[in-house]
Amino acid sequence: MSSLHKYAPQGRTRNQSGESAGSNPTQFQDNTNHPVRSHRPEHSDYVSKGAFATLISPLKKAVKDAGYDTPTPIQELAIPHLLNGRDMLGCAQTGTGKTAAFMLPILQYLTEKPQRPIPGKPRVLVLTPTRELAAQINDSISTYGRYIRVAHTVVFGGVGQQPQVTKLRRGLDIVVATPGRLLDLMQQGHVSLNAIEVFVLDEADRMLDMGFIHDIRKVIAKLPEKRQSLFFSATMAPEVVSLAQTLVHDAVEVSVTPEQPTVEKIIQKLLFVDKGNKDSLLVSLMNDNKLEKVIVFTRMKHMANKVAGKLNRDGISAAAIHGNKSQTARTQALDDFKRGKVRVLVATDIAARGIDVDNISHVINYDLPNEPETYVHRIGRTARAGLDGSAISFCSAEERSYLRSIEHLIHQRVPIDMEHRFHSEFARTATGSDAKPAPKVIRPRRPRPTGQTQSRSSFHGGRRNRQSR
Fold this sequence. Notes:
Blueprint: E1 14-15, H1 57-65, H2 73-83, E2 88-92, H3 98-112, E3 124-127, H4 131-144, E4 152-155, H5 162-170, E5 174-177, H6 179-187, E6 198-201, H7 204-209, H8 213-221, E7 228-233, H9 238-245, E8 252-256, H10 262-265, E9 267-272, H11 278-286, E10 294-297, H12 301-313, E11 318-321, H13 327-339, E12 344-347, E13 362-365, H14 372-379, E14 390-395, H15 400-410, H16 425-429, H17 456-467
Parallel strand pairs: 2-7, 2-8, 3-5, 3-6, 4-5, 6-7, 9-14, 10-12, 10-13, 11-12, 13-14
Antiparallel strand pairs: 1-8
Helix pairs in contact: 2-3, 3-4, 14-15
């Protein structure tokens, strides 16, 4: 596979054969489930710029209604090639407009090439790692497809499957799914992938981080050989590239780097604190009204519950969101946060990608992440759409090694604030074993009685746990 070409203002794309990628206009054919309508550009069309000008009128109008008139770099590079039916290998960080980059061409394809939906056999599959990202993409379909007829739904675990089965039986154009529930419905015979015409694998690196590689391969094995495949990832580690090679064919490669790195647009601050004082430090920070809409990140699910509980007891409205919460609870927490009913959303890294909430004033890393890339994804929840934003990170002595990895990745030192009342000089100067997390204690399993087998309930419990991610 050839190397990716990163975007610059004069950026370019190329296919895997090394040929220059053109932008010839696509020949349109109607693809709705109602009588054919002409979508030839007319004087009454909304005036659109760049790649948006290649869209049919209903999509132009929807894009304008959503408040966009100029494509982002990933949209400008991707849309013409996807309209031409090319496979794509895309490297783009969250917040670059990636969803519209692939969904607008898909909606145009479905509109210009009509086909009555077949029960249980969708034409487009978008596979994502988390429920929140799946729901967000499904909402984007509603936004961009508001002036066309397209049947779509989202499929994920943590909720009852019957409403999803009912929609599949009616026939759908697009299914947005997480791997666990999709495979369950496939095994039960509710959905078949043999009619898929366009397949999108989104956030591939996150998929691998969450252990979905085997599930992804099972899904790919059921796809028809003739299809358009789109592969997107924020990073291109060797294992990600290896997966991409099994999915795309003669793909156009697009790599987009934000014109200004996310970390440079965010006011960052580092607070050294003893582990036992983190709760008190957080409460003291939240007494500042400038922290209007805040995401607090923890590493562990139980810690997210603990922190949210502490904030609520101190009169600071907060809700927790993580993989062990029911989908109803997660949806409610996110909705309350978006609407301003709660001031703080306490989240594990399931929320580091895929949750798109406007006007987040601050991100607080209650725990530093053990993977430096996650730090960038976390703080990228703020300072979006040209707005200001701040990121505050707590660092205890045992997190110093995580801090070093983060600063190495972002090529800068995070400014230190030593003026707060909970400052820990021990944490700031920790070295050696004091500056590393304690080794995990692995408790030996109790021997299973002879002849005992795994219970049916524990088997399905494992399936549910995977679906809840």
